[in-house]
Structure formats: structure tokens, C-alpha cells
Amino acid sequence: MLESKFNLPGQTAFYKGKVRDVYTIEDKLMVMVASDRISAFDVVLPRPIPYKGQVLNQVAAIMLEATKDIVPNWVKSTPLPNTTIGLKCETFPVEMVVRGNLTGHAWRTYKTGQRVLCGVTMPEGLKENDFFPAPIITPTTKAHEGHDEDISREEILAKGLISKEDYEQLEKYTLALFAKGKELAAARGLILVDTKYEFGKIGDKIYVIDEIHTPDSSRYFYAEGYEENQKAGNPQKQLSKEFVREWLMANGFQGKEGQVVPEMTDEFVQTVSDRYIELFENITGQQFVKEDVSDADAQARIIAELKNLL
Hints:
The protein is built from 8 helices and 17 strands.
């Protein structure tokens, strides 16, 4: 499904993100549709990936259910395999990025000689993909368009983006969620390397919102072979959508001005779809069941669920 075109009762707003269509209902609920659009380098690629939306929505649903005793979450119902209905929260203007290993952006910063990322000092003597002594939180601003920007705890508080009390709670929730995510990953023979969480608030209550621990918001390594690869200085076998970025870079595209997205052949699109399904099964331990989310009664099913919830 490339995009949804629902007309829902009580609809008060609609937002089309890079990969999600979000409907606000009576300013109380949100209907979040995970489309099959795929983005990389902040660019939406020209062809959808079959079943990608279903994979992300179902992984998120499983992970949110598994962590609801740690942090309240926004989810009320998943009426379709690619659709979640939940509470409309006032979102905090930062994303809480948490890193267990020196990978990705942290490694790119580290190898230039810098040792401070988002106000956090990284220890000397680490190699790419090594574990940090303890997970670190490296927040970013939330950009509706363009790139998110690094920001420190001190800057967040100094600018009054979040109160000190709320930010300290977000830090506690972030580390608790990450610890649970690592536990769930370890049970599947995986290492949860890094991820991000978004939070919102209704009254005085904080909720985790959006998706968590999905292959689009997280990076996983396979635990088997990790130590051997580190000792030999070899790349780690990972489970994320990094393979899409790598294909784009190999074909001369990094989202820079003037660059053209390479042709996405039928074979490539099928390969990406297969990889997302593989990701689902490895992360959850469940068999993926392909479901048709473009059927004519999809809107009717959402409307019926909204009536129940309202």
C-alpha cells in the first residue's frame, strides 16, 4: 500500500509523514497507518516495498505489548495488520536515542577524534561496534522535514524544551525500555545495538508513542560470531534496514542535492520485501503471515473500531 485515502468520522487532522499516514480523531485518538513507502537519507524512495508496513506495525505492536508494564504506551487497538489506533498525546520535541555499542553516527564521530556526543563523553580505546561500559543517551531534535539534529541534555533543559522533572523520567524510561529490548533480543540470539524512543504526555502522565524496537528504528547484531568478529576486526552481521542504505550508497546515492535515486528493479524490490519479512521472523520468533490491507472493507474495519473506542 503506497498511501491510505481514508475518510474517517470525527477526523480533525491528517498528516502524511515519510512512511506513515496519521489521522487525528476528535483530537483524542490517532489512527496511524504504516504504508509500504520506504525512506533512506531522509528521502522517500520511488517504489513501495510489499508488506513493509505490516512488518513494522506488527513488530511495534508485539514490542509495545511486551513493555507496557515498564512504560505506559499509546496503543488502544490494531484493527488492521498495518494500522494502529491509540491515544493522541502532546509529543515531546526530542527523540531519545540510546546506544549500547559504538556504531553508526557514534562511531563516525569517534573516529574523527571527538569524544563527546550530545554532551556525553565516550571512553578512550574503543573499536567500532565495541560495547560502551553502559548504554548512553544521545538525544536528537525532532524534525518534520530534513535531518534531526544532535542535542545535549543540558541544551534541552536550558532551552526549556522539556522540564527537568519530565526529562529525568524520560531518561529512566529510555534505559528501562532499552534493557527490556536487549533482553528480548538476547532470547532471539540478537544484540539490540541502538534504538530511539518517542514520548508524549496527557495531563501528567507520560506515554511511549510511535514504534519501538523495529528494524527501521533500531539496529541489531547477531550474537553468534560477535566476539570473533570484534577480535578479527570484521564487520558485524546486522539486522536493520542498513542494507538499503548500503545499496543506495553503492549506486551513488546519499540523498545529496543533485543525486538521483537509482532504479529500483522488481528484483530489488522483492529482495527488500523478503528481507523485511526475515527481519520480522528473526526479531519476533513468529512466522510472518502476509495479509491484504488494501481490501475494500479496511476503512469500515477502522471506523467500527473507532466507534468502540469512542
